[in-house]
Design brief:
Length: 712
């Protein structure tokens, strides 16, 4: 029996060697351009070495120096090779690696074949050749280019015919092409263009009067509307309403007055609008928007589509979109068929879905993307900046002068929120403005410019951060670095701290931690060393970020305590570790953690492995690796049974155990079961639950799950 088994093993091993040999011989034949033998050998090896043999066959078919050359077959076999390679075991991969078949080689070969197919289509330069490439080859980038080239050729053919039927057929065959709007325009507007070629408001006005029944009257009215309101102000739209009461754009003009006057989309802004424009015709909309402006809506998904619910779980916007972002300034970016636009809280489109990507609104504007270029759009839908830039950023804060920063081919341009150019400059890099300054990089060094584009602080630093807000002295400062040492300058470049410190932290309550030679102290924004550098520096202490509630943690002789802003020890350095005061108690450690009061009297015994600050009368504690909650008397009011727990917020805490999360109330009662993968709180008392890729919402005030995705 043993001999028989050995013989079978020998046969199996010999068979593998035989086919492995066929594969190797195939590649040897390929090296010497013996395509007939190579093809036959690869076909013999398909059963045992499909990944390697398919790769070899693909190589033969992809070459143009043999009778088997066929780009379709080359692609077919490289895709088969890629598929088979993924299922290869380690031994098989080792075998085919010897003949040069690796994951990288397969990817490279596939890319070459697709590129060759694309070049073939381009060389033939016909609608049919590009259609062949689009249908048979998978490559998002080249496919997109092929679609564009095919559509252009088809459109050129339609324009050569220059007939209504030709344009009709083009639009039917290529409904999503870039040329479709132009084709539609050529089909519809020939007569209209001939009558209004003067392109003046007078010519459009005459057209409306002479051709009142014309199907193009609406377009003429649109032109009148555009001419009259071109400065984009609320006053211009209001003037249009008074002059052209019969124009079909009256509602649109009122909408613009409304949108321009309520960009913030808050109840107060909307109420103010109604006071300023008492003749606004849609008062029901205003009243509904006041309610909506104060209402939180939450994105939900159902059957792969997105919509929104309110805090009661009522569906406010049906799940019809492929993507949906949170609302910002009363608008949400949504998409359908990879096209983005914006909707209001009523669910109506306020900006059409025409962009490749769209960002949230801030200060009434949003950065959008089209054809791999960035532009800026106003909440009214008006284009503030064209799609002409490599990158765009803007100040998302709600106070101070706002500026838009753009980048194109190394040139930085700064615009106001209406799209007016303020200045431009060529820098290696430039930042956004903060405290009236923006950093720039020239020749690898950092400096600062003002809002006129003037270099106020020469580029002389190895690194610099943006200027912070005003400190206790009313001074705006920024940290800088030279020769691996930190310093601080003001907005005019005056040196507050020379670059001689190993570490300088951000200002906290008017003071910044400064460290040198493994010692640290605290200094003010005038450069005065308020607390001497006599404390032992460590990154851990630095990460506590300085002063909180007038106190900061310090260390001496490997013991820790707290000082006030004068440097006076409030809690002496006699503890292994400590935290800051919270709700009149300070957590300190002597082997175990406990709490003392401001008189340094022990209030809660040293009994915990770790503790956190008090919040809402409770503090998290760790006992034997588990987390619970104590009250100010040190009583364990919620047992230590959790792996993780968040501080209570709005009466609830997100807790976890055994890799799952739940929700407890302040009594410790479990109100959401231990089966959730992730819990977040997108709105006050509104919790988003995620499990197995599905979602639900739990309303804490109602103590119930108000919305559930199918399959949750």
């Amino acid at each position: 029996m043993k001999k028989h088994s050995s013989f079978l093993l020998f046969l199996a091993f010999s068979s593998v060697q035989l086919f492995s040999g066929s594969l190797e011989k195939g590649f040897d034949a390929l090296k010497v351009f013996n395509y007939f033998d190579a093809k036959e050998l690869f076909q013999k090896s398909m059963k045992n070495h499909a990944a390697g043999a398919s790769y070899g066959l693909s190589s033969i078919f992809s070459r143009t120096d043999n009778p088997f050359s066929n780009i379709d077959s080359a692609y077919k076999y490289i895709m088969l090779s890629e598929k088979e390679f993924k299922s290869c075991d380690a031994k098989e991969k080792e075998t085919i690696h010897k003949v040069g078949v690796t994951g990288a080689a397969i990817i490279n070969q596939k890319e070459k074949i697709i590129q060759a197919a694309y070049e073939k289509a381009k060389k033939e330069n016909t609608v049919e050749s590009f259609g062949w490439f689009i249908k048979n080859f998978v490559h998002p980038g080249l496919k997109k280019e092929a679609v564009k080239l095919r559509n252009k050729l088809a459109f050129d053919n339609a324009k050569k015919l220059n007939t209504l039927q030709g344009y009709k057929e083009f639009m039917a065959d290529y409904p999503d092409s870039d040329e479709e709007p132009e084709a539609n325009a050529l089909y519809e507007l020939t007569l209209y263009n001939s009558q209004t070629k003067a392109n003046t408001i007078e010519s459009y006005d005459v057209f409306v009067k002479l051709f009142s029944k014309s199907p193009y009257r609406g377009r003429a009215e649109d032109s009148i509307y555009v001419f009259f309101t071109r400065n984009g102000s609320a006053e211009a739209y209001r003037g249009f309403i008074k002059k052209y009461p019969d124009n079909h754009n009256i509602k649109k003009s009122w909408d613009m007055v409304y949108l321009l006057s309520t960009v913030e989309f808050t109840p107060h802004a909307i109420e103010s609008f109604l006071f300023d424009y008492p003749d606004f015709p849609d008062k029901a909309r205003v009243k509904a928007d006041i309610a909506l402006a104060g209402m939180n809506l939450y994105p939900v998904q159902q059957d792969g589509k997105w919509g929104f619910i309110d805090s009661l779980g009522n569906v406010r916007i049906p799940c019809t979109y492929d993507q949906a972002d949170d609302f910002s300034e009363g608008a949400s970016a949504v998409s359908l068929k990879e096209r983005f636009g914006y909707i209001s809280k009523t669910g109506s489109q306020i900006i059409p879905l025409i962009y490749d990507d769209a960002n949230p609104f801030y200060n009434g504007i949003a950065v959008v993307k089209k054809n791999n270029r960035f532009g800026v759009v106003h909440r009214t839908g008006k284009q503030v900046l064209p799609f002409d830039f490599d990158d765009i950023s803007y100040d998302e804060n709600t106070s101070g002068t706002k500026m838009i920063r753009t980048l194109k081919e190394g040139i930085y341009k700064y615009f106001d929120l209406k799209g007016k150019l303020i200045f431009e400059g060529k820098f290696e890099k430039a930042g956004d403005f903060a405290s009236g300054r923006a950093y720039i990089i020239q020749n690898g060094k950092y400096g600062f410019i003002n809002k006129k584009g003037e270099i106020i602080i020469p580029a002389a630093y190895d690194w610099a951060e943006s200027f912070s807000g005003k400190d206790a002295f009313g001074t705006c400062v920024a940290r800088v670095k030279q020769n691996e040492k930190f310093g601080i300058i003001d907005t005019m470049g005056k040196i507050i701290f020379p670059c001689e410190y190993a570490r300088i932290d951000n200002f906290s309550e008017g003071l910044a931690l400064v460290a040198k030679e493994k010692k640290f102290g605290f200094a003010d924004a005038k450069g005065n060393l308020v607390v001497p550098m006599k404390y032992t520096y460590s990154e851990e202490l630095s990460e506590t970020n300085g002063f909180h509630n007038g106190l900061a943690k310090v260390e001496q002789s490997k013991k820790r305590g707290l000082i006030d802003k004068t440097g006076k020890l409030i809690i002496p350095c006699e503890y292994e570790d400590n935290r800051n005061f919270s709700e009149e108690l300070c957590a300190v450690k002597k082997i175990k953690w406990g709490f003392i009061d401001k008189k340094k009297k022990q209030k809660i015994n040293f009994q915990f492995d770790y503790v956190w600050d008090f919040s809402g009368g409770l503090a998290k504690v760790k006992i034997k690796g588990k987390i619970g909650f104590i009250n100010s008397k040190g009583e364990l009011v919620i047992p230590a049974t959790y792996d993780e727990a968040a501080d209570f917020k709005n009466g609830a805490s997100i807790v976890s155990a055994a890799g799952k999360k739940g929700l407890i109330d302040i009594s410790g009662k479990l109100i959401v079961a231990w089966e959730i993968d992730e819990i977040s709180e997108p709105g006050k008392g509104m919790f988003k639950l995620e499990k197995n890729g599905k979602m639900a919402y739990f309303n804490f005030s109602l103590q119930k799950q108000v919305w559930t995705e199918v399959g949750f």
